[in-house]
Specification:
- This is GGDEF domain-containing protein.
- It comes from Massilia glaciei.
- The chain is an alpha/beta fold.
- It contains twelve helices and nine strands.
- About 50% of the residues lie in helices and about 20% in strands.
- The C terminus is likely disordered.
- The protein binds ligand C2E and magnesium ion (MG) (3 copies).
Length: about 280
């Protein structure tokens, strides 16, 4: 009895595993065609300067409009893209599309807005990365200072020597470099000093409990103090409430990003936001 029970379980397990693998393979097949079929698109989330209350940048966030499943978020397909190497053509498409968009906004005679693009570890390690970034900037005409590349701690810490070389090359182009999801990986403070990137983005997991969570508050304050000590700009991600914004302003945080300031949205809506002088009435203090 026990044996058949176990057998049944094994069978159940293996069939659900088969289904998992099949849906994974199906997704991969779909992802291979997604670019050509123009199923990928970008949304843009505003980044607001705390002292001026103006939009100073946007972050490009990729979405997949799947023909059967509807909209698939990057947390689901970016890991698959990394596993399969599809991140290379997808990442290049994201970078070019974002640069073209930034130029289009500029041509509509609006003030320059920095465009932030996420780079995956695989892209960062690619020996053609620098050339790819140079061509994207050259072909679209975007000022390198208006392109921000977001890297994670994991990407940077993997091979410090190679990282240093790539960062030097990217800095030479003049692009703006930042560390994304800061506090969730394991950065060595020593490397942080040597890497010399412009901005730190505090991960949203530290912001989400504010202002009640006193430990997250302590961590957030410490990151801001450290970053400023290293002459870096600090961005808080995942700002969802006015209370969080007030607190972050008190802490001296430079920039904020999150649902309270605006969700990731279409380029048309970003244009509307950019046309307004100020997005939100920030507290006076
Ligand atoms: P990320 O770079 O840290 O981007 C911020 C994520 O937080 C986005 O999720 C955004 O929609 C979400 N978010 C923004 N404001 C709030 C908020 O107030 N509360 C909460 N809870 N979440 C907020 P999204 O768009 O699903 O992207 C998830 C991750 O996927 C990104 O995290 C990034 O690591 C990756 N990703 C997105 N687009 C690309 C891309 O083009 N290339 C690569 N390599 N990775 C990408
Ligand atoms: Mg990011
Ligand atoms: Mg992040
Ligand atoms: Mg990230």
């Amino acid at each position: 009895h026990a044996k058949s029970c176990g057998k049944n379980n094994a069978k159940l397990y293996s069939s659900s595993l088969t289904m998992q693998i099949m849906s994974h393979v199906k997704l991969e097949v779909g992802l291979r065609k997604a670019l050509k079929r123009e199923e990928l698109y970008l949304l843009y989330q505003p980044q607001i300067d705390v002292s001026s209350a103006e939009i100073v940048g946007v972050e490009a966030l990729v979405r997949w409009r799947h023909p059967e499943r509807g909209i698939i978020l990057p947390t689901e397909f970016i890991p698959l893209a990394e596993e399969t190497g599809l991140i290379m053509p997808i990442g290049e498409w994201v970078l070019r599309t974002a640069c073209i968009q930034a130029m289009a906004w500029q041509r509509h005679s609006m003030r320059p807005v920095r465009m932030a693009v996420n780079l995956s570890a695989k892209q960062f390690k690619d020996e053609n990365l620098t050339q790819m970034v140079i061509s994207a900037l050259h072909e679209t005409g975007l000022d390198p200072r208006l392109l921000e590349l977001e890297l994670t701690e994991g990407t940077l810490m993997d091979d410090a020597r190679a990282t240093m070389v790539t960062l030097d090359q990217l800095r030479a182009i003049g692009v703006y470099l930042s560390i994304d999801d800061f506090g969730t990986g394991y950065s060595s403070m020593n490397y942080l000093k040597r890497f010399d990137v412009r901005a730190l983005k505090i991960d949203k997991s530290f912001i989400c409990g504010l202002p009640q969570d006193s430990e997250n508050a302590a961590i957030t304050r410490a990151i801001i103090a450290m970053a400023h000590g290293l002459k870096m700009v600090v961005v808080a991600e995942g700002v969802e409430t006015g209370e969080q914004l007030v607190l972050l302003k008190q802490y001296g945080c430079d920039m904020v990003q999150g649902f309270f300031l605006g969700a990731p949205q279409s380029q048309e809506l970003i244009v509307t936001m950019l046309k307004k002088q100020s997005l939100v009435a920030l507290p006076a203090k």
